[in-house]
Amino acid sequence: MKKFRYIHDIDIIFLFLCIMPLESEAKKERSLQNRQLAFTLSERQITLSMLKVTKRPRYAIMDGIRYPEMFSPKCFKEAREYKPQPGDVFIDTYPKCGTTWMQNVSLYIFRKGKELEHPSHFLQMTPFIDMVGMEGIINMPRPGAFKTHLPYSHMPYSPDAKYIFVTRNPKDCCVSFYYHARNEPGFGFWDGEFNDFFELFMAGELEYNDYFDHLLDWYPHRNDPNVFYTTYEDMKKDIKSVILRLSTFLGREYIDAIEKDNAVLNNIVYYSGFEYMKKNLSDVYDIEKGENHAGKMLYGLRHVDEFTKSLNPPDDLPELQFVRKGIVGDWKNHLSVEQNERLNKKFLEKMKDTEVLQWYQLE
Fold this sequence. Notes:
Layout: H1 2-50, E1 59-62, E2 65-68, H2 73-81, E3 89-93, H3 99-110, H4 122-125, H5 129-139, E4 146-148, E5 162-167, H6 170-183, H7 194-203, H8 211-218, E6 227-231, H9 232-237, H10 239-250, H11 252-260, H12 262-271, H13 274-280, H14 287-294, H15 299-310, H16 337-350, H17 356-359
Parallel strand pairs: 3-4, 3-5, 5-6
Antiparallel strand pairs: 1-2
Helix pairs in contact: 1-7, 2-5, 3-12, 5-15, 10-11, 11-12
């Protein structure tokens, strides 16, 4: 009897061990199905909401990437196909995540705190290559940094180039993006409503596509040796620390300049501050004013100007604010409770199993 019971017990144990993986796999399958169902319901909600959208900014599409229709397709193609040279520096963000701020920080690190002779030189020193293409790349004085919004998988990449990536809380990004699209007449969205724009943001149907996909494309490379990563919120919290880290990343001579003369650091902070930028960058894209100081504008800029005029925007549009508020938490003044909950849900779904969940506390 003891022998029989021993064998019987072994059979039970063996059967139990066989069933355990099956139950585990079943749980995984149910979990996956639940996540897929939740995602499907979320997508269905977005689809139904999108049916109500009555106004969209004007975009074109190239190789699956939305970009402003006002941009020259030739220039946009040139930016994507550019072969980086050793020492090239790129500033990349999803739109309205701190691009202009980082452009100024980098610019004044390169200039070791020396002010630009005229604000119009800003576009030459840190050209937006998606808009100006090879002409802007060739004419940029070195050292300098190229601005782009391209996702990592579509970036001009070289291990000998350096990349600065900045991200921002998606809620503040969405709000800032809305004002950018509405106030820039080239988008043809001057009478657009925030609710429509929010649905486009949720569906990833804005320029450079989905915010979360763009972030996830860059996320695995955040610790690459030729990538400098920071957040808009970290810059707001302690800009001096970001400047010091970035100076070290860009080259020994830049951190040496700061260590030898503290005025260099103070000047970088001042000239990249929001009050200074609001005052001095408001006319950066004014073609006529720019030509008076910097000479003939690039083809890409002229293309934007001509396209915008072809839309016949109203004469009473508010003046374009190149730099708006520059604050953290403005989303609280715009998102409804329901919109906030939906964006929180998408954030959790898309950023699952990443450190990004620790970067932004959901409210």
